């Protein structure tokens, strides 16, 4: 074991000892102040508002914003919505970028002058008019919810209200006769069809509605009965 003549001699030969003298030798007061200021700015984060995505991308790091800052973008091309973006790193790469973390605004209903959703898309739809969960109501009372995409195709929507919501009822002899009916001409979504013989001698009632299992509209059986009584 090495013996030292004094405590100071020991410290002079062991500069990793965490005493105040050694710490202040490594970090000057000005360095410490700068480190704490930078840490504070990074942790607290600030916010501001810009007009659009182009203005967001034109901001300069350090000059206009710092890490973890939040920017509210007034126009994000999705109707009456503001976008909320935060400058944070990707978990996998640690590369900083503007990440959209939210959206501010209210869903809207657009009333169309067209009599079908397809005609609304062809004649009235404009990119940026709609955002997901917005609603389009066409002439006649049918209402559609935008569930995906921009609304540029019929498949972006889910019909949620039908003009024939009370349901008209039709009676046909067989399922073949039921299937020969034409949607939009002979019946509407939400209508009923009573089939006198479903092929097994049983009377069945069907409603034309959305089927979650197949993700499509179809005739769905709501009940069957016959004159046979088992006792």
Tell me what the structure shows.
The longest helix is centred in the N-terminal third of the chain and has 16 residues, at 29-44. With 231 residues, the protein is an alpha/beta fold. Strands 1-2-3-4 form a 4-stranded mixed beta sheet. Strands 5-6-7-8 form a 4-stranded mixed beta sheet, with no helix packed on it. A 4-stranded mixed beta sheet has the order 9-10-11-12. It has 3 domains: 45-105; 109-161; 169-225. It has 6 helices and 12 strands. 20% of the residues lie in helices and 33% in strands.
Distance between the termini: 104 Å
* Shape designation: elongated
CA-based gyration radius: 34 Å
Share of helical residues: 10-25%
What keyword list fits this structure?
231 residues, alpha/beta, 3 domains, four-stranded mixed β-sheet, 12 strands, 20% helix, elongated
SSE layout and pairing:
Layout: H1 7-12, H2 20-26, H3 29-44, E1 47-52, H4 53-57, E2 70-75, E3 81-89, E4 96-105, E5 109-111, H5 117-123, E6 135-137, E7 143-146, E8 157-161, E9 169-174, H6 175-179, E10 192-197, E11 203-211, E12 216-225
Parallel strand pairs: 1-2, 5-6, 9-10
Antiparallel strand pairs: 2-3, 3-4, 6-7, 7-8, 10-11, 11-12
Give a concise summary:
The chain folds into three domains: 45-105; 109-161; 169-225. Strands 1-2-3-4 form a four-stranded mixed beta sheet. It has a four-stranded mixed beta sheet with strand order 5-6-7-8, with no helix packed on it. The mean pLDDT is 78.
């Amino acid at each position: 074991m090495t013996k030292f003549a004094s405590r100071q001699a020991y410290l002079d030969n062991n500069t990793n000892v965490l005493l105040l003298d050694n710490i202040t030798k490594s970090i000057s007061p000005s360095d410490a102040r700068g480190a704490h200021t930078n840490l504070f700015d990074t942790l607290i984060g600030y916010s501001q508002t810009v007009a659009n995505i182009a203005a967001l991308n034109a901001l300069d790091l350090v000059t206009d914003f710092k890490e973890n800052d939040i920017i509210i973008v007034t126009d994000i091309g999705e109707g009456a919505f503001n976008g909320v973006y935060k400058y944070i790193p990707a978990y996998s790469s640690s590369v900083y970028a503007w990440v959209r973390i939210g959206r501010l605004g209210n869903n809207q209903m657009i009333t169309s002058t067209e009599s079908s959703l397809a005609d609304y898309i062809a004649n009235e739809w404009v990119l940026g008019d709609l955002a997901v969960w917005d609603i389009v109501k066409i002439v006649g009372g049918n209402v559609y919810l935008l569930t995906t995409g921009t609304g540029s195709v019929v498949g972006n929507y889910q019909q949620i209200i039908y003009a024939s919501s009370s349901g008209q009822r039709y009676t046909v002899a067989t399922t073949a006769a039921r299937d020969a009916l034409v949607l939009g001409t002979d019946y509407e979504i939400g209508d009923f069809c009573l089939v006198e013989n479903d092929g097994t001698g049983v009377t069945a009632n069907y409603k034309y509605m959305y089927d979650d299992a197949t993700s499509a509209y179809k005739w769905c059986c709501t009940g069957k009965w016959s004159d046979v009584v088992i006792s």
